Structures are given as C-alpha cells and as structure tokens.
Amino acid sequence: MNLFRAEEDVRAWPGFEADTEEAVMPLHEYAQLWGIENYRARIENDYITRFPALQAERWVLLEKLGRRKTHFWDPPQPPPAR
Amino acid sequence: MSETSELDQTYCLIRDRLRETGQALHYTELALALGVPVREGYRRLHELMAHPYPCWLHPGTDWIASFPPFSNIPTQYRVSVDGQQRWFAQCGFESLAMCWVFPGKAVRIDTHCISSGNPLRIEMRDGQILLAEPKTIFGYVSVPVSKWRDNIPYV
Predict the structure, then answer these.
(1) A40 touches chain B (CB under 8 A)
(2) Which helix (H) or strand (E) holds B77?
(3) Model's pTM, two decimal places?
(4) What is the pLDDT of residues B128-141, one digit of tens each?
C-alpha cells in the first residue's frame, strides 16, 4: 500500500501487477477510502467493539467510485462452515 | 456509543501511548497500566493481536510491530504533528488515516515515491487534504483484498 509521485510511476514500478487497474487511484480517492467511519472511529473508546459493523462502508464507497468492476476489492470469503 | 469491552480497554491504552510518544507499550507496561499481573497483560495483548483489527507482533516476539494507523517500526511514511516528527504510519494508505487519531491537528506525511524516489509531502486535517506535493500523487496496492491476510506486513 504505497504512494507514488504520479500514475506513470505506479505503472513503472517493478511491483506493479497486471489486472490490478482498480487499485490505481489518485490520492483523493484513497483519502476518501481511508476516511470512512472505520478509520474515523479509531479515536473512540469502543472502536474494537464496533469494528465488525464498520467494514461494509468500504465496499459501498468503492462501488460509488466505480472500482468494483473486477474482484480486486472483493472482501475475503468467510471460512467454510464445518 | 456501545459499551466498551476488555479488548477496547487494551486497544485504547496502546493507541494512546502511541499517540503520545510514537512508541507502543510492552505487555509489562500494559499490565501496569491496567493494574493487573504481568501474565494478564500478556494475555490481553495476545487477545487483541488475534482480533481482525489489522495489528501484529514482530514474528517470534511479544513486541508490537504494527498498530494501525501507527507502525512501531520505522517505515518510509514519516508523520509529524505540531512540527514534531515522532510517528511512522503502517503504510501509505494508513498514513492518510493518521489525521483521525489527531483530531483538529494538521498532520504532515513525508515520504518518497517508491518507484521514482522523488519526495512526496501531504498535509491533512480531519480528512481534508491541505497540501499535496506534487499534486499528482497516486496510491496503489498490488495484492487483492481477499489475499491481504495471507501476508499482511508485505501488503
């Protein structure tokens, strides 16, 4: 999860992977994503209790940003029930 | 606000020490702060580290390595508040969340582009970008979210 001078520096980076276009985003979009309640609530004293309920907003915002066309941002699957 | 739990209490003590000093507590200090025996401090620390909140210990130790948005190990994401560079962010994206644990303060992030090596500077307050040099900054992660937990320090 790194920051780059510009979009062309992302693509020139040796760690850049094919099929990851949805993760190439300008600073203001990442600031929005890391600005959802999950992060704002870290200063609250009940953050860990609230943590599970704070995760869904991320995927709603990614949808609004048009970043859910592939599976890149899909949340991890829960482990299969035994 | 919901009722706070034992995990919340542990979280707050570690978070607040990091906010104040830039350094995380050891479990002996956690025990002292909680007023419990050392073994209980150890148990509380490991209980929080097992939670989905993406914090972790340095492998093979009981030392907190990362406690987002903070890193207890120096990273290339240097964070200053009130002109003092005392903190490191867990990663580039978490550096953008530093402002939420310093409400009302201007938080400065100094780093270098991991590709070109050029200096980058960002200032934020309460989620607002006050300054970005250069204005063209981009973020990127190469690992899909579903695989973040496989090697979270790398991600």
Answers:
(1) yes
(2) none
(3) 0.92
(4) 999 999 999 999 99
